[in-house]
Amino acid sequence: MSASGPGGTERTARDVRVLYVGGFGRSGSTLIERLLGELPGVCPVGELVHLWQRGVLAGERCGCGAPFHNCPFWRRVGAIAFGGWHNADVDRISSLRRQVDRNRFIPLLATSEGPPAFRRALSEYLSVYLRLYTAVAEASSCPIVVDSSKLASLAFCLRRCDDLDLRVLHVVRDSRAVAHSWTRHVYRPDVAPPGSDGQAVQRSAAAHSYMTTYLPASAALRWNIQNSALHVLARTGTPTSLVRYEDVVRDPELVLREVAAFAGVPLNDEALRFLGGDGDGRHADLRTAHTVSGNRVRFLSGRVPIRQDDAWQAAMSAGQRRTVTALTLPLLGRYGYLRTGGWLARKRLRTR
Ligand SMILES: [Zn+2]
Questions:
Q1: CB 179 within 8 A of CB 320
Q2: What integer pLDDT is reported at residue 194 of this predicted model?
Q3: Spacing, Cα 118 to ligand 1 middle (Å)
Q4: What is the DSSP-derived secondary structure letter of residue 193?
Q5: Which of 18, 45, 242, 334 has the most crowded CB, counting CB atoms within 10 A?
Q6: Percentage, residues of the chain above pLDDT 90
Q7: What is the band of 342 on the pLDDT scale with cuts at 50, 70, 90?
Q8: What is the mean pLDDT of residues 42-52?
Q9: Residues with a beta carbon under 5 angstroms from ion ligand 1
Q10: Rounded to an integer, what distance in angstroms lies between the CA atom of residue 139 and that of residue 6?
Q11: Global pTM?
Q12: Dihedral angle at the C-alpha atoms of 198, 199, 201, 205, nearest 10 degrees?
């Protein structure tokens, strides 16, 4: 599989490495992606799975603050990949996603080639992502693209693309903290002011001004599904590494060194100079990142504190905590969240 740009230059993605951040939402993946994006040769793009609806169609804001169609980086990516975003058939891509990129197709994606119609749809779907990743690598001059789409189903699709060097960073966070976060009404700062991109593409802006919420039990079940699916992915032979959000916050230098080794990012001491502080006063000096979707952390630049969000411990009711603990018990134990000291356990998780 290969991708060619409008300039006629034939490019393959063999030199493009995708570090795919997988996991369930509210697990700190946006912060982790921002930290990874400071490493040399690494380009973070946000949750690429939402590029089509939230970027191309809705014109939501890039992480740089500009509406999608006004961002020079994404204009260049669109030109390289499709000869301009107006040539990207978003309806077709959405249709292909429904045909192959769903949790219900994971058994098919994991175990067999699938029927001919499925294979054709998957091949077409992957060709779009291949063009996109290749264009991002060219526009950014970075050989490694970080995609924090998180969804296990897309990772299962991408593993079927022989021309991508796919590595999956499986990010987990204590299910109680995650479930509590999903109950909170969080404003989405992604929506650009009407008409600001000059393309009148503010579709359903009001309906998307707040992030989705889930009841704790529903969030717990979804946490189980996404994380379990990513464990299955690891067993298919896809290079996968597991990190806990709590470990990233506590010792970002150590975790980033390990992730860099996993992703093949050469590091020297200079590469981690953007990290500073100690104890509860850790921080990162972040540059602007052109990310298409993710939580509000994607808009931050300059000195950004790295601290544990442990609001759930005081705010979550005992009943909700018991429910989520019971529903997620096996994986909570596997990740070390049930050890003495709970999520503060000092022993880092190193095994899958
Ligand atoms: Zn931008």
A1: yes
A2: 53
A3: 34
A4: P
A5: 45
A6: 76
A7: very low
A8: 96
A9: 62, 64, 71, 73, 290
A10: 14
A11: 0.89
A12: 0
